[in-house]
Amino acid sequence: MTAYLRNRLPFGVALTLLLLASGWAGATECFVLSAGVDNYPHAGRLNGCINDARNTSGVFHQQQGKLFTRVHADTLVDGQATHGALIQRMQNLARVGNAGDVVVIFLSGHGGRTNDNQSWYFLPYDYDARRHGQTALTDRQILDSADVLVNQGKKVFIIVDACYSGQLRISAQNYLGKHRNPQGGGLVLMLSSSANQTSAALGQYSAFAKAFVDAMNAGDLNRDGKVTIDEIRRYSYSRTHDLIREHGQTGQQDCEVAWSPSISGNMPVAMLQQVAVNPQPQPQPQPQTTVWTGNEDLASFGRLSFHFHTGGRVQMHDAAGWSEGQWRRDGSQITLWFSNGRVVYTGTMHGATMYGTARNDRTAWNWSVTESTGGRR
Hints:
This protein is an alpha+beta fold. It has helices spanning 3-8, 11-21, 49-61, 83-92, 132-135, 139-151, 167-171, 173-177, 207-218, 229-246, and strands spanning 29-36, 70-77, 102-108, 111-114, 119-122, 137-138, 155-161, 186-191, 226-228, 256-259, 268-271, 289-296, 303-309, 313-318, 321-330, 333-338, 343-350, 353-359, 364-371. An 8-stranded antiparallel β-barrel has the order 12-13-14-15-16-17-18-19. A 6-stranded mixed β-sheet has the order 2-1-3-7-8-10, with helices on both faces. It starts with a helix and ends in a 6-residue tail after the last strand.
């Protein structure tokens, strides 16, 4: 959008054009079905899932008047979140809204696998293993309900914090692959752990659910005023690991985010600032780069350097060459993402030294770097 248009269009028109440019045309309303179960009568009790459901409804409701003209949130906790109620509420979502609207289905509670670990299910409040077929909310039931909504032209987000939820991504491959029209509906999966991992509960909330809410509020990695699907993917991956570590837990939990070809990773899920009317020119800061060099103990690697730029951009140089990434600092803690979040460096800054651990899909290793003399320019 040119400066000429920004300076002269009314706020509502400018916002509409911005959303059109972002691939969010027509998404004026949001419908949220959020369920959390702590006090199972026939399964182990949990902590934090009720808070997860309420927090997720709340963070979407904050987008009313920003990204959405209206947000409708239906929050079911404990005894409200029965198998029958969840099925009925998912079916009801097909009777409201229009093409282009956003639908969010959020589930927090127990999850399990069956059929030789080829299928996944969520445990509603009334789940009973003796009546598994009648009380388990299966991946097929969830995906079929979502597919009806996608076929109506809606953008559907399935967000789950439950053990083994990554299996849902495997089950959803055919559902994801068949939706390719950018002007049509689409499906987005945001899952707390891979198919063979449990999901951590941290007392007042679950790790991934908390990371997702934090991403909606603070995941604007490129500082452009909106939080996109891809930014949520990168932010929540790192934030989940950080939360687990902060609570003294050591389990590995890698959240997974995937979307159909009809969806753009640049699609905004949250707006953090309003579109300005008649914005005044602001002085631009001078580019600044800080260079840090050192080593890492990953096999076949060794020398390592990071070039930190303003605006959250970082370049890494190692045995594989140059890699572009992003960085975030919270106090003395620093996180760097490369390869679309598949390689993550986390560490501590102590004066002119940074050190910590890194991980990819296969392994983890240690690293340490020191600020180079004259590296700031």
